[in-house]
Design goal:
Elements lengths: L7 H10 L4 H4 L6 H6 L6 H10 L35 H24 L16 H12 L3 H6 L3 H14 L3 E4 L2 E2 L2 E5 L7 E8 L4 E8 L1
Parallel strand pairs: 1-5
Antiparallel strand pairs: 2-3, 4-5
Length: 212
């Protein structure tokens, strides 16, 4: 049985990244402690199963050192305006999934010659938030009066998503990571985020917003 040398620090990093203790994985990987001490190397099949268990790309485990995973967006929609110390694995994986979909749509937009979304970049950080919100409502065609007439917040969210997509925004809404019902997203951590990608060669734009 061929074993593969893996840096013990990467195994510990992957486990801790998933918020797991050695005892949480002991049943599936009884030799994990020995792997993390560098006393024994896992097989390739064991590495693949371990990567799946801790939700990490298997290629990460072959790096010389643990990667520095910075939050790939500058801001998030949250319940409280506090800095995030450490993003959860669920948040990171959701961001990565949305970026993959964004990459796909970029190629789609280039292939089909889609035009630039005109409102991207029209607001500045120092602008009055009330005026920016009013401009957003006008762009979407979704007035406060219309919002108040909708019977429930779910109807309001559904209408918002529909109008945003008609304005050229890709909208994704989910309460779980991908299709995994066992990996729920925590609304106390974040409520949504936006990804913007201006394709400089032909000034097209991919604008994506995710709502939890």
């Amino acid at each position: 049985m061929m074993r593969v040398p893996i840096q013990p620090s990467l195994l510990r990093w992957a486990r801790e990244r998933a918020g797991l203790e050695p005892k949480d994985l002991a049943r599936r990987f009884p030799r994990l402690a020995a792997w993390e001490r560098g006393e024994q190397c896992p097989t390739l099949r064991q590495i693949e199963k371990f990567a799946q268990a801790v939700h990490v790309p298997v290629g990460y485990l072959f790096l010389p050192d643990p990667p520095d995973e910075a939050l790939p967006v500058p801001d998030l929609c949250t319940l409280v305006d506090l800095p995030m110390a450490q993003p959860s694995l669920e948040l990171l994986d959701t961001l990565y999934l949305c970026q993959q979909r964004q990459d796909w749509f970029r190629e789609y937009a280039q292939w089909h010659g889609l035009l630039q979304v005109p409102f991207v970049g029209t607001a500045k950080r120092e602008d009055n938030p009330v005026r920016v919100a009013a401009a957003m409502r006008e762009t979407l065609g979704f007035s406060i009066c219309e919002q108040q007439q909708l019977p429930t917040w779910t109807d309001t969210l559904r209408q918002f998503a529909d109008k945003a997509e008609k304005a050229g925004v890709l909208v994704m809404a989910s309460s779980i990571v991908g299709n995994n019902p066992h990996r729920k997203l925590d609304v106390a951590e974040f409520r949504g985020f936006a990804l913007v990608d201006v394709i400089s060669s032909k000034q097209r734009c991919v604008f994506l917003i995710s709502l939890v």
